Amino acid sequence: AKNPMRVAVTGAAGQIGYSLLFRIANGDLLGKDQPVILQLLEIDNEKAQKALKGVMMELEDCAFPLLAGMSAHSDPMTAFKDADVALLVGARPRGPGMERKDLLEANAQIFTVQGKALDAVASRNVKVLVVGNPANTNAYIAMKSAPNLPAKNFTAMLRLDHNRALSQVAIKSGVPVSQIHKMCVWGNHSPTMYADYRFAVTDDGKSLKDLINDEQWNRDTFLPTVGKRGAAIIDARGASSAASAANAAIDHVRDWVLGTNGEWTTMGVPSDGSYGIPEGVIFGFPVTTENGEYKIVQGLAVDEFSQERINNTLKELEEERAGVAHLLK
Ligand code: NAX
Prior knowledge:
11 helices; globular
């Protein structure tokens, strides 16, 4: 039998945690033959820690064969000890009267502390996925706070945007999602992200762009629908995306660890300068993965419309980065 892998999850008593933990323990994250140990972090607050205990009671009550152990933490230095995977879900939500700048700063503090803790105690190969918003900038802060870990180990979640885009294209074209390849999303996990089906093809190589053949739909329906989907879920459900966000986190890490067999997916990763994105900016790119490493898909044509969109989402990320620069000294 395989040795258990340690998966740290922050914000473990939250909405996304409630969907995520059960799927990890069920083997959806790392494979049906891979035992896992869950190391769960919540804020140092009686109510949160009590709620976390409740979730752990339910995990026990599932008697998952792959769940080899679990522990509750209020300190990232113990929660991240020897972690092979770290899912950073917990973040400070926007409170009443809070400006975007206040939100950035509150989260910058959290992700500085957590980046330092990962740097100090996690496995040197830890794979980090930041889900908590603003996800790209939080991942950037954690990466910068962990100089002894490879920068490439820090990623942000664009997969929910990617999956949303896939489903919208499938509905429009009538081609099932399972038969659509080479979808991607560029940029920030925010309404500025650029979901791009120009390269998408069916199993038999037909272009989705040609099949749909409707630029106005792309501009006026598809991009706004994907970009504002989070708000539409809040409006309909009275709560933000949780099960779909947990599902996307599972997809992201599973594909990173187990490989995509040549298929494209989208990950927010530190740029290596590809497509003119400044090095180090955590940006959504089309990637393929193999042997636990991702590679940015190279050589894609960027037309004028796409360049405009990419510039726009990059500009937002650079503003966010400038907004927290003073905290990273
Ligand atoms: P909840 O408010 O239900 O849960 C968050 C949990 O995190 C709470 O239990 C809180 O106590 C905990 N927490 C806060 N600060 C913490 C810290 N410093 N250490 C440990 N735990 C901490 O939010 P939920 O709906 O689960 O969403 C979590 C985050 O995911 C939010 O930031 C949200 O904006 C973000 N999302 C990101 C998405 C993406 O695609 N990247 C999509 C879904 C989601 O909106």
